[in-house]
Amino acid sequence: MKSFYRIFAIAAAVSFAAACNPNTLPEFDDKDAFAAFEKTTYSVEETSGSLAIPVTIASVNPMSASVTYEVDAENSTAKEGVDYTLEDNTGVLSFKGSERTKSIKVNILDRSGVYTGDMVLVLKIKSAVGVNTGAESTCTVKILDLDHPLADVLGTYTVACTDYFKGALSYTMRLTKDPDDVTVVWCDGIVPLAAGVPSLAVWGTVSEDHKTITFACGQKPGLNNGNGDLVLCEWEERGGSLYVSTAGSIVFTKQADGSFTTDNPIAFVDDEYVYQGGLVLPGSVWTK
What we know:
The protein is mainly β. The chain contains 1 helix and 21 strands. The chain has an 8-stranded antiparallel beta barrel. Strands 5-7-3-1-9 form a 5-stranded mixed sheet, with no helix packed on it. The N and C termini lie far apart (about 75 Å).
């Protein structure tokens, strides 16, 4: 009886809750059907060839519809016939009742060997017949230029360094391009503490001959540990105490084997100059 009572009580409670639940799910009617982009952002390399951008009809039952789209020229930097072409220039997607998804096909024109910078193509759903226009009515495609002037410097590196407290360490770091300045790179792991922490990425200026990368001390990438923003510094040990400096710079120099090394000691500390685990001895090596 006891077990039966429990099951019965649970069943009754569930039944009662369902009968009295005021949070019933709203019903979706085909008058609310809409057309929208499945994704609103894409990134493709300039050598990718083509890209299919799906547009989907959201409805309860299969529906026939017509969707008109266009290039948002005002917000696009990519030029038709130069950076891309549309496979279908009618600007219309026609959906039969059995079709839920159709794609806008974009041909990416290969401009390898010519530095153009990244280009942006913005497509938007202009109107729809038979359904509504959904909220996701704009799609942005970034066409990534592979001919950056710093292409030989950019990329993934293996870092070998010596932490003041932890000893020899190895980890992965990336140098990425700046969106506006072709002489600047961003480093996402100048010390082990910063590896994989986007808010500790710092910028460096590459020399004209690509043989040095100079990081200005005093940079505050934006991570606050409660005692203030962490700041990039040099450091030294004097009389058993550690001292840091936000003046000057940290310079990595390219070696004959293509690696970069520095003679500067590197640190990340907060505004109160409290050790945060980012003290690295001179001699860090970046190998691509």
